[in-house]
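Deliverable D5.2: sample structural annotation.
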Amino acid sequence: MPRVLIRIGALLAAIALLSGSWSATADQRSEALEPFTGYLMAHFTGEHSNGEQIYFAHSRDGLHWNDLNDGAPVLLSTVGTRGVRDPALVRSPGGDRYWIIATDLRIANGITFDDAATKGSKSLVVWESTDLVNWSEPRLLNVAGDIPDAGDAWAPEAIYNPATNDYVLYWATNATLNGVKKHRIYYVRTTDFRTITSPVLYIDRDAGRGIIDTQIIESPSSVGGYRYYRASADGHITVEGSNSILGSWTTIGNLSHMGISNGTGGGNVVEGPMWVQFNDRDEWALWLDQYATGSGYMPITSTNLGSTRNFTTITDYSLGGTRKRHGSVLNLTAAEESRVLAKWGTTTPTNRIQSYNFQDRHVRHYNFDVRVDPTVSPVQDAQFRVVPGLAGTGTVSFQSVNFPGYYLRHSDFDFVLAYNDGTDLFKADATFEQVAGLASSDWKSFRSYNFPDRYIRHYNFQLRLDPITDAIARADATFRLTS
């Protein structure tokens, strides 16, 4: 959310939040007026099995990023396609409400991009929060259902519009207009991301040129001559300026002189333009996803967006351990940053799980099966983060280090490494009570949360969940957590 809107958030909240669905308290308004101290990025990581979910990363300077939640997803979609891409973070003017809106699409389900574009979801996935850390269950918002011949709803963004006292929610839909089927940008207006106006065509490029990824940022001081700037992937990366979100826009230029395009100009082919204004100065970064080479996001920076010739490339940046795909960045106040880091910023130590009666062996996953092996390679296959139990307090769960979001769980009393699908059954199957070792009180055993008469044990070096009835079984069910 642009900084000028945050600064006037208290006034807007006091006089004009007409929807009646939410209001800002005095404390929340004062928080929203605080200086920004950090940055939060929401993103997805790719088309692998857990990549199309919501991930968070944090930065102090807007250029060097650290993965939050140990690199695992922070939110899982359980609606629609059960996957999300292209998340956008939205803050209310008063700083008392936040939304994440995202594309309802999961390529990992086996759908092709062509099918997803012609017969995909016409809805977006929405989460809502009052504090950035406690989020509602996801819900679907049908934005493209009233667009004739609509095939999808991709890459959503939203920006608060003070001219109309609501949000302009915009996205790309592949539909036929004037005999030409292609992606164009449409918008609706909303106050609560539940009730929306009818969709209206927002951006349509000439001839058969489609446009998918568009993101708008506000220049609080109109540096460069415009109050708003937008960058779009339309064959080039086109930058435009305007003094009104829903008014006329002027083309400023593209990045072809830098050898950067969205395909039409060749060179470094990128997508997913993502704006960030630096907290302490009138300077902007435009992050571009180098998807064609799989190289991830790169930033270019400018202190004057009035000309694309003002952009420069930089090399002093880092993106953390996970690949960042099309997302958005929210500038954080100190209070927001503190809450986010308290929730997801602590790095959980890694552990190995050593067998009591075969002390040269450790629990490891191999092709998502779980067993105890000596000399594990790669070593990360035998490394886990012992985290608070997914299903109950005072319990533990074991998250894989090299497959963040995957946990040890029992299935038909056999153990597998599986992706957390968010269901109650998964949480129960992946949760254990840590007790004194059945064969030695100096070690540990792990009782099942949902089958409390059974324990984790190895049998023929395979990990199982079994009742423990004799001395051999007690030794098989005894382990030690090591570094």
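Annotation notes: The radius of gyration is 25 Å. The longest helix spans residues 334-344.
The annotation will be released with the project's public dataset once the embargo ends.
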